[in-house]
Amino acid sequence: MVASLFGCALIIAAGLLAGSSGRQQPKVTAIDEELSDAELFHRLRQFHGHIGPYAVLGYRLGRWLLDKLGCGKYFGAYITVTGPGITPYTCLLDGLQLSTGHTLGKRNLTLNVIADRGKEPLFQIEAVAEAGGKVLCLNVPLAVTELFAEWMSQELTEEQILHQTLSWPQEELWQEVS
User: Fold this and answer.
1) Which residues is 123 bridged to in the sheet?
2) pLDDT digits 0-9 by tens, 68-77
3) Strand 77-84 vs strand 109-114: parallel, antiparallel, or unpaired?
């Protein structure tokens, strides 16, 4: 019993020494290594269940945000998404979670639901870096819904959806705002 308590005390002490906040920080670079389309397809499908344009857009946005903020994965920022609270739009959140490691459960990714999804912009995203407080704001225009609806009406394969969403010009998918 004493040995068991001593072992628990050592584990707790090690955890407290791991970081100033008391939680152990994962040792990762700001963004995962560049994934091939096949690797991304597998990881996103495994996480989200299928490949759709909003999930891929969320993944792409997350990589861009962490790069621009210069912060780490998992605990480096607070990301707030304001947009529709229904699928397929909310699939964007799964892509963000996969690429950033920020999650709804840790509350460093939040969704503010708007009722009227017919107004500009479709999504507003604000990301604030924990260290330094750098803020990025961007808008995903309503036209993205029409673009994605057109792709879906063409009955594209999941591989085609992934490729088109990854290769589509960024400035047509989101704009940084001040």
Assistant:
1) 140
2) 999 888 888 9
3) parallel
- The domain limits of the chain are 29-177
Q: Which of helix, strand or coil describes residue 69?
A: helix
Is 118 in contact with 79 (CB distance < 8 Å)? no
Which helix (H) or strand (E) element contains residue 57? helix 53-69
pLDDT of residue 33: 62
- 165: which residues sit within 8 A by CB, 6+ positions away? 53, 56, 57, 60, 173
Fold topology of 29-177: 60s Ribosomal Protein L30; Chain: A; (3.30.1330)
d(CA 69, CA 126): 11
**How confident is the model over 148-161, as pLDDT tens digits?**
999 989 989 999 99
Give mean pLDDT, residues 83-89: 92
